[in-house]
Amino acid sequence: MRGARRTVRRTVNAFVGAAALVTWVALGTRAQEPPPLPGLTAAPGRPGEWTNAADGSTLVRVPPGAMQIRPPGLWKHYPGEGTAGVHSGFFIGKYEVTWAQYRRFCEATGRAPPSNVIACKGDWVTGQPGPSCRCRRFEAEDDHPVFGVSFEEAAAYCAWAGGRLPTALEWETAAGADGREYPWGAAAPDGTRLNAADESNAGECSDHRVRINPGLAPWDDGFGCTAPVTSLPLGASPYGCHHMSGNVAEWVVAVPEVLGDAKLQPGQHLYLGGSWASHHGHCRIGLRRPTTSALPRTTTIGFRLCRSAR
Ligand SMILES: [Ca+2]
Ligand SMILES: [Ca+2]
Asked: Of 18, 45, 162, 308, which shows the fewest CB atoms inside 10 Å?
């Protein structure tokens, strides 16, 4: 009889223990989940990733925290330096926005899609055709990053998708908040991590090679222009974001923490990360370049979606 009671007690204890474990795991799992946002659902089978219903973007969550503002490098008129805090968490695109996504936005809103026939020998400062200008057609494949969109058009897309462009501070945090030069960490850039100007550019994109990059990287990353946004996973940031360096540079919203005492001129905006046409050293994530509304559309600047965590 006593043995039977002991067996029952053990069974009950085991059941209570198991139930407590299940509850603890469930609460722990729930505690790790971000506050729900309208139109954002956890991606099945992909922990830490969410799908933004409005445009299908895959987003990752960046929690609140501090980041190290880097020295300005080549562009000394943007001298942000020190440490700044991202006080609210946010969601940001794991990938750059694609041509397919942007075309759906155009269809839904009646906008004209961007042209992929662009004068690539225009004046670098004004964007106006130069003496030797000729237009050429760049690839605009569905899974490649959209380009040829102005800052305002990129912002309009993000609003349509229920979000906004990231601030420069958010973007740099998502790219790697610990002062690293490249999203993947300490390793030197190479063709397995970065789509920049390399031996692949020596062909159809040679205009950019000659004008901007007299010294191409001594490797072949396999992409003469843009690459699919999901490519080169070895180059992902600590939050899993692809192509924070290279592929297309990305429009961001300038903020005082990054600008320091510098001032943007009216119509100027920042873009970050370098592109397929950049020297690999220009793809470091702390380098900030301004451009003006006189050069609103190029083959080298795109964007990714951001959403506030609440
Ligand atoms: Ca390349
Ligand atoms: Ca990029």
From this structure: 45
